[in-house]
Structures are given as structure tokens and as C-alpha cells.
Specification:
about 450 residues; Immunoglobulin-like; Neutral Protease, domain 2; eight-stranded mixed sheet; 23 strands; about 30% strand
Amino acid sequence: MVAGSKGRAEQGADTAGDPYVPSHGNGGYRVESYELDLDYRVSSNRLTGKATITAVATHPLSRLSLDLVGLRVAKVSVNGRRAARYAHRDGKLHIWPAADLMDGAEFVVDIQYAGNPAPTDSPWGELGWEELTEGVIVASQPSGAATWFPCNDHPGDKAHYRITVTTDSPYHVVANGRLVSRRTKASRTSWVYDQAAPMATYLATIQIGRYDVLELAPSPVPQRAVLPHALIRDFRTDFGRQQDMVDTFCRLFGPYPFTAYTVVVTDDALEIPLEAQGISVFGSNHLDGRRGSERLVAHELAHQWFGNSLTPATWQHIWLNEGFACYAEWLWSEESGGLSANQQVSKAHSRLAGLEQDLVLSDPGPELMFDDRLYKRGAITLHVLRQLLGDGTFFDLLRTWTRTYRHGSVTTEDFIALATSVAADADAVRQLFAEWLDAPELPALPRSSRRRR
């Protein structure tokens, strides 16, 4: 709020101010919950939805904005009263309530909308709602959530979700959280999911397909798989060690942060797997009956801790997702009899040394935020920190990290502060991070991190 304007209603910003996604996210409020009631026709790709969004104003508001792309808005109300007016253009839904919203006031926005959802183009490819051969996949990272519901599309605004999807009965629906009800009427079934843990918009998902369900393990967290029947045999081999991964990661990272873990395998091939909160999604091409994609199984599982529970406050801090998940691949390799973490680090470092030295890990910019170099250099950084701290202190640090910021938003500065607080030599840790996170040139490996002969 500008000086002298205390109590004066303002127009909420139509951006979160994140330079990585400058047209996404909004200011002036924080969302507490999304309640989505969706009706979807698979054959015609027709979505009819009602979104009930409960939020709290962070300063007096005469107007607020939400992100929504490619769908048509039919009706908007705020606190049960029809909005004075609204305008929907360029991916933004601007709403003028009938009465100004006071600073700190909770308010409820109801939006009815419909259309044929489609992925949106982005610098990172097509994002959001996408039709499969038979069904739907939703892959929104970092900015595709607005293709299927109106939202404050920024990772720093996490909220509770309740998602209802009604669709044709032959199809199985997966969404985030606990399945609280499933009701069939005539040829259509309504699925209701509740995600109690705070969730970022990019982690919200719906998966629809002709799927069977496999119950995999009841503890330490219930695990299940949802996939076409024809893929079950290969799945049992390719994901046969997932239970061991869960046990290993719970030991190294702390308790699994959600109530369950679901793996979806689509009948279609996917370029890469993707994470959602409590869910990972793989394509049929990630199954070969020979565990050929097992490192990806470990990577997506690790995101439940790093990215989904601990979510970057802004996209600048993406290495806290991808560097940690990549290092989890190497920890699993070490645990399961493959290459040791030292060997993985040496191999990755040799490759990075031959590539362009223009990546700053702590602020890679939108062009490089999903560059493979960020994944590998982030993982190497963690291994160098492990060598400096020693295994006991390092893994205590990871467990403290996941416990302290459980279901929260995190920054690189948060991790540095925690790491220096547990180190015997805080200055050495600060120097390590300055070299590995803030300088584009790839540092040499400490002697103890080089491949053992």
C-alpha cells in the first residue's frame, strides 16, 4: 500500500511479481481453499465447472484478479452477490466486487465457466490440461493450472483443495488427496477428492483414463498404482523396488509428507514423467519390464518431499526441487547396489565441465530453470555439502529441513541458513554455497568427492 492510502481500496495486482512467470499469479489476497466441481465429457472434451475460492484480502480491494486461460466465464459472484462487473482477457479474470473488500477480510468468489480445455503454450512447451488417446492428463508445472480452473497461479500461494469430477463411468479419475466418495448415476460417476495439506496450483491435477487399480503396500504410507490392464505385468517389475525406495527415503528424508502415494501410468507415451502432490504420472514408454526407468521412479517419489511438501516460494528457487530429486536418484543408486553417489557425482561433473558455463544455480532465469545442468549441478552441490558436513550431520540436516518447512514455502536462503546453523564451520558452508550456487563457473570437485578408483 502506498503512503497515505491506509484504508483506501486498491486494485489488486494482476501479477505475483515473479520475473520467471511475469503474467501469472496475482496480488492483494491469499487463497485459503479451492472447491472445484467439474463435469467433463471425454468424447467431446467439454468441461463445465464451478469454482468456489475462499481467500483473505491482504489490503483493501476494489478489484481482484485470477488466472484463467481458454475457457469462457458465465457468472461471477463475491460473497454471494453478483460482481459489479468482470472482464476476462489475456488469461486474466478481473473482478470488481459489488462492495469493496476490507484488509484482512475473508471472502468467497464463485465462478461458473465452461469450454474445451487445451494446453497453453509456454517457453517450456505446452502446459496444463491435455487430451490423451482415451482420457486426460494434467501437467501444469510451472504455469498451466489456469487451463482448467481459475486460480492464483503461483507456487507461493498454497491452499486446501476439494475436487469433484463427474465423467463417463468407464473412466477412472485420479485427483489430489483422499478419495472421499464415488457415486454412480446412470452412465456417469462423480469422484470427490479432498487434499487437506496445502498445495500449490501447479501440483493440482486430474488424470482420467480406462485404468485398473493395484494396491501396492499399506505402510509406511499406502501406495497404489492406476494404469491400463495391459501394462500391469511390466509395471510389477519396473516399480518392484518402489517400496524399498519409500523405506529408504523415509529414513533419509523423514516421514512421507502426505496420506498416500499414487502412481498413474498412461496408455500414451510421455516425454518425461511428472509430479503432482501425492501423485506421480508416467507414460507407457517408461515401462520396459527391465527397470529401465528406475531412476525416474526414485526422482518423482523424492519430489513428494522436495517440491510438493517443501515448495519453492518463487521459481528462482527451482533447484530446491530438482537438485534434491536428482540427488535422491543417486542415493537410491548407492542404496540399491548401483553406482555410488561419489561415482555419480564424478560422472556428472565430467559431463558438466564440457558444457557452457552460464548457469547460476541460485537464479538460473526462466530460460534455464529446467535445464539438465541445473538438476545435476544441484545434486553435486548437495553431495559436496554432505562431504563437508559428514553423513550424520548432512542427513540430520535434510530431516530437519523437511520437518521445519513441512507443507510450506522455501527459499535458497532458508536452506543456507539452516545448513550454516548445524555446521561446525559455518564460514566453510557459506563459501561452498557461494561457489556452487552463485557463480556460473563450475567449481572443481573436492578431493573426497572424486571417483574412487
